[in-house]
Amino acid sequence: MLVLTRKKGESILVGDDIEISILELTGDTVRIGIKAPGEVGILRKELYVSVESMNQNAEKSSITASELINQFKKMKKE
Question: Assembly and partners (predicted)?
Answer without folding.
Answer: Homodimer; the beta-strands of each monomer intercalate to form a hydrophobic core, while the alpha-helices form wings that extend away from the core.
